[in-house]
Amino acid sequence: MPLAKLARLAQETPLRVLLINAGEPDALTWAGLFQPLRLAAKILGPERLHVDVRSPDKFAADAQRHWHLVLLVADEAQASLKPANSRILIERCRAAPFWGGVGAGVLWLADAGVLNGVRTALPWALYAEVDTVADRAVFTPNLFEIDDNRLTCCGGAASIDFALNLVEIIYGAGVQARIKETLCIDRVRGKEERQRVALQARFGALQPKLTEAVSLMEANIEEPLSTDDIANLVGISRRQLERLFKQYLGSLPSRYYLELRLQRARQLLLDTHYSIVQVGLMCGFSSGSHFSTAFGALFGNTPREERQRKLAAPPA
């Protein structure tokens, strides 16, 4: 499992998490990340989880302490205010077993060239700021990404989802449920869910065929189009379409489309009372076994388990 390595952090006692606050303390990106992790530390106790906070200057100067997970955090509005000591800062981040960025922190890491070849969740509003070095990262429109030991999140409200997913991966659904109850959160979005305007913001002018193809997919969830149909409708060959998806989204059109349908199915399972069979049909799956297998391969549990998890969760 791709997340098994991260889950093993639960064996660290205590697990030491460091958040480098390079932005405003009252920004949504910071609060959304810090508050769930702070509550997790309170629930678990200092012998299991310790969450530290440092300013960039203090972190760069403190070379003696060891952390298991380090995240460089700043709201996207602070993107132009890169810390003066960013080179040292990033080198120190990379010394941790797991490291990454949230919000503008993702842009700074990408600009430094340390995310080359890594699936990366960059805030859509910062796509225009990406330089030619950073463009070697594999930017996705997702809310957050966990690629081996590198973690990135687009920030804003997604920081809450990111933090709660980390809690569940490392400490389980029970701890996550207690935090959700405290914060009055009903549903936690997964890493596969997308920033709504990311594709249009990044590719709208430069790659209109790509955004048109994705729009066709989003409009045809219940009765999926074939890759050939989509290519014909946007006026390019199948090979050209596949090249665009591979270059800009790191996926084949068929795979991207499948994940889009499964994300919609997950949303319906969590937010509606449609039966599992109905949800499958509404998302283009005529076979229940195919729906269950594909859903399990992407999310790690079956549609029935997803629905049961919703029913078992405490009310917000």
Automatic annotation (TrEMBL):
InterPro entries the record matches: AraC_XylS_family_regulators (IPR050204), Class_I_gatase-like (IPR029062), Homeodomain-like_sf (IPR009057), HTH_AraC (IPR018060), HTH_AraC-typ_CS (IPR018062)
Domain HTH araC/xylS-type span(s) in chain numbering: 211-309
UniProt entry keywords in alphabetical sequence: DNA-binding, Transcription, Transcription regulation
Gene Ontology molecular functions: DNA-binding transcription factor activity; sequence-specific DNA binding
Keyword Transcription regulation: yes
Identification of the protein by name: Helix-turn-helix domain-containing protein
Species of origin: Massilia atriviolacea
